[in-house]
Fold this sequence. Notes:
351 residues, alpha+beta
Amino acid sequence: MKSSIVRSGLGLLTMLWLTGCNTVVLNPSGDIAAQQAHLVMVSVYLMLLIVVPVIVLTLWFAWRYRKSNTAAKYDPDWDHSTKLELVIWGVPLLLIIVLGLITWISTHLLDPYRPLQRIDDKRPIPAGVQPLEVQVVALDWKWLFIYPEQGIATVNELATPIDRPIKFRLTSSTVMNAFYIPAMAGMIYTMPSMETQLNAVMNKVGTYDGFSSNYSGAGFTHMKFKYHAMNDADFNAYVAKVKAGGGSLERSEYLQLAKPSEKDPVRRWASVDGTLYSAILNLCVEPGTKCMAQTMHEDAQRNSKHHAHEAARKQGASEVARLAQAEAEVCETPAQKSTLTMKSHNASVSN
């Protein structure tokens, strides 16, 4: 008796605790995340149109046709109802069509590569406003943020102004990872030697959590950072503070930074090598290493030359065949045959 009371009390406390939760995913501070939260709720409500009636009818049938209810109609030979079949199959079909349309539209509108069209549901992006570019590198096990416009870099700390579009360009140093700020937008994966993009905006000043949402090794648990959304004046002051801190992030220092480490503190650099992100992306930070872009360019040139040679060879073979055909069809005198044979031989030799 006491144990059941305790369990009931714990269950009630759990429910009360959950009702007070401010779930970030459903109460975000960025417009993209807000649209994603709205999509989730619309999908849930639409699915409840099926789930709730099914649960209610299941309970009602169990009560209505219980063994002790002798007044309920007993019809063991019943097996079909056209009206019931239309309801059972028609309503879910319509629901699937509606969910499919919503998913198709939202997939394009919320494409992370798509430039933003608005700051929020009431404000479009003003003319002439350019997104703030942030280059993100997933390291083992920390986050490197490079601001090419401001010329600074940080580790495990991100700051941007509110109400300004942000274009994240993301890659990884070694293994696949996932960048996720629940209050701003959905997660986006990072992969070595590849670049992904995320366009987003934050609408409320505050400090938010960011982390890796894809397991990437022993230090994955502590691969977290703080994201500071600021007004323009505070962001400019933050940039000035970082620039006053001294230090430059060069390739040699990056190679030390890229070594696996856990629970790294926040670090800041007043300047950064402008080619560093491109070198990380192309796997050529170390001196003497050929960049992936150069290797792919050389491969493309070799393939182009090979295709051109093959096309010339085939064209030459076609010319030889044409001359041979002409020799067989139009030769009337030994002199003509000798002339065509010589042309065919010369074409074969030249190819």
